[in-house]
Please model this.
Amino acid sequence: MSSRLIPLLLTGVLALNAAAFADTLTAKLTIQNRQFTPQDLTLPAGTKVKLIIHNQDVIPAEFESYDLSREIVVPGHSQVTVYIGPLNPGRYNFFNDFNHAARGWVVVAPTTGKGN
Amino acid sequence: MLATAIIVFREVLEAALVIAIVLGASRGISRRGWWVSAGIAMGVFGAGLVALFADVIAEAFSGTGQALLDAAILLTAVVMLAWHNIWMSGHGRKLAGEIKEVGAAVQAGTKNLAALLVITFTAVLREGSEIVLFLWAIAASGGHEFGMTLGGFTGLAAGMLVGVLLYRSLLFIPIRHFFSVTGWLILLLTAGLAAQAAGFLNQAGLLPALGSNLWDTSAILSQSGILGQLLHILVGYTARPSGIEILFYGVTLVAIFTLMRINGRRVHSMQQRQPLHDQTDTEPANS
Model:
């Protein structure tokens, strides 16, 4: 029963989301020489963000964040997409799970005006 | 070396705990060892394949391929675990009775064994591919090869040891209560996996977050610590959960619980109409 429900549910949500994605913001994070650039990634509050992570090294990395509840392997010379937010103002730590020396923060500053 | 050991340990732990719980939950079913081993072997092979094609997978579906694959793997595990638990709600009592009487393994349908295989396969596949990529990452970055190998094996052994310990401790539970305990463990585990799947679908942009951090308990119990990690695997603890994760957790929990109740009553009333043999539960457990 549930196996038939899931695709149905997904289709519905996909349709629902198409409209909501219209104003998605795109941000970029690069992994280079085993470090994240920028290390402080500033994002607006209350907006869904399409984060593109580009690993320019040969070595695979794993972008991980407990604060953002995100986890994705970024193979060498590859580019992956992670949607985050809408976030509340604050600082969210992220790191490379394959190399804990590489860390960074998503910094969300309070905004006035636009919400949700 | 220690860093390698810890990271490998964390990945192995997740698969080991899942396997320990399903091994417990399938106690008394004959040939389960063979099916679970086959699941592990297929998982290791699959993990190698996933790691080999990691770049292709990562860049598929505009860079969301890996999250979609993770979600698909997790949802498969959720369906299989749910199915197993619902089946057990009808057969657990009979199984416990037979284990107590003869201690012999019970014949169960191939469907149930196949579900065990798939659960084991998915657990090993997901964590295994990360281990392979991680070890490759260290090897490629010019670490000490001996230290890395030692760390990898230490982590693997430690993770498996915790799995074995969990399984052994489960066996201390009196048989009368055994399957209701494993049933609850699987129920919570499954709800947690469903929440993780929701997280990946949200990460891929397919589901709305419904609130990114509904609450924050990271100051009380951090998810990076060992206890937070264990609870994350076992019951789906998340320090800063999103709305969609909570929704999936709740719906999965209630849906499986309800189906277990319905099936349990149905099988029970069928057995009452045509009683096979007496299953008195009056004597104390013999452990």
Notes: Chain B has one domain: 2-148+159-273. The radius of gyration of chain B is 20 Å. Confidence is low (pLDDT under 50) at residues 278-287 of chain B. Chain B is about 75% helix and 0% strand.
